[in-house]
From TrEMBL:
EC number of this enzyme: 2.5.1.-
Family: Belongs to the trans-sulfuration enzymes family. MetZ subfamily.
Pfam families the UniProt entry points to: Cys_Met_Meta_PP (PF01053)
Quaternary context: Homotetramer.
Record InterPro entries: Cys/Met-Metab_PyrdxlP-dep_enz, O-succ-hSer_sulfhydrylase, PyrdxlP-dep_Trfase, PyrdxlP-dep_Trfase_major, PyrdxlP-dep_Trfase_small
Keyword vocabulary terms for this entry: Amino-acid biosynthesis, Methionine biosynthesis, Pyridoxal phosphate, Transferase
Gene3D superfamilies, per database record: Aspartate Aminotransferase, domain 1, Type I PLP-dependent aspartate aminotransferase-like (Major domain)
Top-level enzyme category: transferase
CDD domains: CGS_like
Tree of life domain: Bacteria
The name this protein goes by in its record: O-succinylhomoserine sulfhydrylase
Residues modified to N6-(pyridoxal phosphate)lysine: 217
């Protein structure tokens, strides 16, 4: 293997995460470019008909069609797998494509899923609406208590599906306990790790089987493209997931993969810097507003657990004020922080989940999850934290807080 073009996984696997995030998976062309190339091609050509046949028979290495493989996309998959400490990764066109594929590729009519009740609105829609339509039973539980997963087990339970910290209530799930219950009962645990990314939390280290991502969030990190990823064992990715995604086509574009590759180069730096800033902002809000939900603060009921399984608590947290009118009033008074429902961006963004990200789930489900009318969710970006605090201070004063 030429040093300028190839990588040896035996070597790259031993790199530390910050190094992997910049160099992992790089596969240079014959030009030896330093930054990854974008291969915007849908197809590939062959030297002879026999080669084409051999590629399709998989007796010859190489690519056949970009719904199946693409060099730029493959670099990102290798990079995410290395960072995650996973054997394999497949990227998808969005986080929801990743969640849908991670579930549907392994579930059939008659199976049962246990899911954390506090979840991203679309993840709840998969569990509450889509899966039951195909004869897949689902139960939602308070994932803060691992015993609720054990209690919900049935003979046909195939999958546990949850996120930690959860969007937007910041519920923390005990990864070791819940994934342990899954292993002991032949259940596959699927963890949505979008809020943390492997820079802050590696669920596989705590016994998770499959880790799925919205790479739209911290991995891109600059609010540019939609992307998703599923990581796990080689057997799960190649034998269970691959036929589903190759034939249904939720494929990530090479251009978007390239943008996320660039984002990954600064992931470690951003995730830690934004985590530090988020703690500072949360400390400012504590005492000034009725309730702050931030797993990095000692006031969070699951602070110790969060710190056991996370390197840092991440850029996102929630807080509560008095009802929808005051929450909307605070958003309208902001002059720097944008009203936006995205997260993981280098820009600070705030949203009112009950009327945006969680407007699609019923009021009952919102109450059950703990999404109150006065809850606001803040993504703390990379701006000077003093400017963010100044903006919040003047906006809070405008609504009488
Ligand atoms: C954003 C998000 C998703 C969906 O990802 P998209 O890239 O928007 O499709 C799934 N889960 C969580 C926790 C998210 O924050």
């Amino acid at each position: 293997m030429k040093k300028s073009t190839g990588q040896n996984r035996e070597i790259t696997r031993n790199w530390r995460p910050a190094t992997q995030a910049i160099r992992g998976g790089t596969a240079r062309s014959e030009w030896g470019e330093t930054s990854e190339a974008i291969f915007l091609t849908s197809g590939y050509s062959y030297d002879c008909a026999g080669d084409a046949a051999a590629r399709f028979a998989r007796t010859q290495d190489g690519m056949t069609y970009s719904r199946l493989q693409n060099p730029t996309v493959q670099m990102l998959e290798e990079r995410i797998a290395l960072l995650e400490g996973a054997e394999a990764c497949r990227t998808m066109a969005s986080g929801m494509a990743a969640m849908t594929a991670a579930l549907l590729c392994q579930l059939s009519q008659g199976d049962h899923v246990v899911a954390g009740r506090a979840a991203f609105g679309s993840c709840r829609w998969l569990v509450d609406t889509l899966l039951p339509r195909f004869g897949i039973e689902t139960t939602t539980v308070d994932a803060r208590d691992p015993q609720t997963f054990a209690d919900a087990l049935k003979p046909n339970t195939k999958v546990f599906f949850f996120e930690t910290p959860a969007n937007p209530t910041m519920d923390v799930v005990d990864l070791e306990a819940v994934c342990g219950i899954a292993r002991a009962n032949n259940v596959v645990s699927v963890v949505d790790n979008a809020f943390a990314t492997p820079a802050l939390q590696r669920p596989l280290d705590f016994g998770a089987d499959v880790v799925a991502y919205s790479a739209t969030k911290l991995m891109d990190g600059q609010g540019r493209v939609l992307a998703g990823a599923v990581t796990g064992s080689k057997a799960f990715i190649e034998e269970t997931l691959l036929s589903f995604t190759r034939n249904t086509g939720p494929t990530l574009s090479a251009f978007n993969a390239w943008v996320v590759l660039k984002g990954m180069e600064t992931l470690d730096l951003r995730a830690h810097r934004q985590s530090e800033a988020a703690i500072e902002v949360a400390r400012f809000l504590e005492g000034r507003v009725p309730r702050v939900l931030h797993p990095g603060l000692p006031s969070h009921p699951q602070h110790a657990l969060a710190m056991k399984q996370m390197d840092a608590a991440g850029p996102i947290f929630a807080f509560e004020i008095e009802g929808r009118a005051q929450a909307h009033g605070l958003l309208d008074a902001l002059t720097l922080i944008d009203i936006s429902n995205n997260i993981g961006d280098a820009r600070s963004l705030m949203t009112h989940p009950a009327s945006t990200t969680h407007a699609g789930v019923s009021e009952d489900v919102r109450r059950d999850m703990g999404v109150s009318e006065g809850m606001l969710r803040l993504n703390v970006g990379l701006e000077d934290v003093r400017d963010l605090i100044d903006d919040l201070d003047q906006a809070l004063r405008q609504v009488g807080l």
